[in-house]
Every structure is written in structure tokens, then in C-alpha cells.
């Protein structure tokens, strides 16, 4: 069978599932479920590179460090290092669950998480206009209080509550791309660009240096998919399908849309919420415009059915 290469981008929120249950054990269970469905893909003959989000998790790590600094006089952790921590912890949970599921099914395959830096432009306007929701959800009063008293930037996130936001520059380069390609060529299941990658810039000396931001993992996964010429980009999130007029009385689920339709609906501005579904659609537009053949948005439990054409939202050139 000809090798088929897919990039699967797993949402940080879908790795939390229930916002009221965010223990490490609950997150591990969510990773286990997602890993199970990715192994279905591997069993069906796909080579897979996995990107994942970290919005909730990186916010929790940052907040823990801020509270520890206040209560115990511990050091705070810079946001790029929180991103690196989240790559390690989420990569660990995914990697272990993938290894366990592959072993259960008798599939011999290595899995490796690559601590991945992603270069951004230091002059990206995003540094002046934070948009990336991180951490948990708050009600409006609490969000406004933290904005006033703690200097947070906050937004209402897709009808689900209020969240803190940080800068989210556009990814320009996957620094560890050659290593990722080598691993994929060797048949390894690679977990990379976790949390969109650790945001770095090149300083005047040409050295890499971390910056305070959280890159959108759908954008980073799209960049990866373009760089490795993936045959398919899958965005695994908390909804089975994408909707037009999402959350409105005239909401309509989409089974299939063309690149031109995706661009039109995105431009209309009313269908895909900013900071949640809109970046996913944009990421897929970039992938298809660069020659990608097909993309799919669905939830983890429906990846197998969607790949058989039974559900999900398919976006094609
Ligand atoms: N048009 C839309 N169709 C489907 N879901 C949408 C739409 N607009 C916004 N959403 C919301 O976006 C969520 C996915 O975004 P988000 O939770 O940020 O993703 P992630 O899984 O990457 O963390 C869905 O669970 C849904 O609540
Ligand atoms: N980094 C990132 O895009 O995370 P989410 O998928 O959790 O938003």
C-alpha cells in the first residue's frame, strides 16, 4: 500500500473535554481516547504527525507559577517555558497512550515527542493585540476584575465564558523540521509543534530566543502539513462537524465545502467564532492553497467514521 501521510492537530480544549474536570487523570483519559482513534488511522495505513494545542494547559501552568510566586515567593515561569512544559506533559500523555494502544493491537511502531520551537516575526502585530485564549473559563465579573486588578487581557470565548488572552503571532518556520522529517521517513509517529510550538525569534546575533506568546496550533500544524507535503490535514476538536451560523437558530452543519466556499464563509465573519473555529478554517485554507488535497474537521471519536466518509466536515480544493 502506498504510504499516506497525515497531520492530525488535536485541540487543547478537546484534551480537557469537560471544563469542570481538569485533573491530570482526566486529561490523561482524554489523551487516551484521542490516542485510540489515532491508532485506528495508523492501523488503516496512515503515517501520522501529531500537533496538539495547549491553550487550557499553558494557562494553568502559567497561573500555578504566578500563584506560587505570590504565596511561596517562588520564581514565575516565562510563557515560552510554560509552552515547553506543556509540550512535555501533553506529549508524554499522548506518547504513552499511543505506545500502549499500538502494543495492544500488536503494531510495531515507535512514537516520539519532539520539543519543537517555531520561529515567529518579532514585529508581528499580534504582540500588540493579544487574541489567544489560555487557561480556564471565568464569568464576566471575574474576568473584568482580573483585567482591572491584575492587568490581564480578557475576551469572551465562543459563547463558553471569559478567558485570559495572550499574543499569538503567525508561525514562520518549524525549527526542528529536518529532525521531524527524518523521524517520519523512519516510520516514527511524531508528536511535534505542541501548543503551536515554543515561540522563538532570532536575535541580532542570529541566535534563537524564546518570546512571550502562544502560537495557534492549527496554524503551526498547517505550516507543518505544508512543509512535509501531507496528503491530509485533520483537525480533531470538540465538535463532530463545522456549522454555518454556529449557535444561532438557523445553524446548519456542513458535510463538505470547497476551498472557495471556506474562504467566502470565513470572509462573511458570522459563521466561525474568532479564536476557536475561524483559525481552524484559515489553517486549512493555507494548507489547500499550498496544494494540500483534503482536510477534515471532526471530534476524536468520529475520526474513523469520518475517514470512511460517514461524518465530519471535509474541505477540498
Ligand atoms: N462554526 C462553528 N462550527 C462548529 N464549532 C464552532 C463554530 N464556531 C465556533 N465553534 C466552537 O469552536 C470550538 C472549537 O474551538 P476550540 O475549542 O478553540 O478548539 P480546540 O479543540 O482547538 O481547543 C467548538 O467546540 C465550538 O464550540
Ligand atoms: N496553542 C493552541 O492553539 O492551543 P488550543 O488548541 O488549546 O487553542
Mean pLDDT: 94
What does the main sheet amount to? 8 strands, mixed
> Helix segment count?
9
Distance between the termini: 25 Å
- Helical content stands at 25-40%
CATH superfamily of the largest domain: Acetylglutamate kinase-like
Q: What spatial form do the alpha-carbon principal axes imply?
A: globular
- Helix/sheet category: alpha/beta
CATH architecture of the largest domain: 3-Layer(aba) Sandwich
Rg over CA atoms: 19 Å
Whole-number total of structural domains:
2
Bound small molecules, by name, code or SMILES, are: adenosine-5'-diphosphate, phosphoric acid mono(formamide)ester
Classify the fold: give the CATH topology of the largest domain: Carbamate kinase
CATH top level assignment of the largest domain: Alpha Beta
Number of strands: 17
Low-confidence stretches: none
Topology as a string of helices (H) and strands (E): EHEHHEEEHEEEHEEEHEEEEHHEHE
Widest sheet: strand order?
3-9-2-1-12-16-17-15
Quote the beta fraction. Answer: 15-25%
Topology:
Blueprint: E1 4-10, H1 24-43, E2 46-52, H2 55-72, H3 79-104, E3 111-113, E4 117-120, E5 132-138, H4 140-150, E6 154-156, E7 162-166, E8 171-174, H5 177-185, E9 189-191, E10 198-202, E11 208-210, H6 217-227, E12 232-236, E13 242-244, E14 252-254, E15 256-258, H7 259-268, H8 277-289, E16 295-298, H9 303-307, E17 313-316
Parallel strand pairs: 1-2, 1-12, 2-9, 3-9, 4-10, 12-16, 15-17
Antiparallel strand pairs: 4-8, 5-7, 6-7, 10-11, 13-14, 16-17
Helix pairs in contact: 1-3, 2-3, 6-8, 7-8
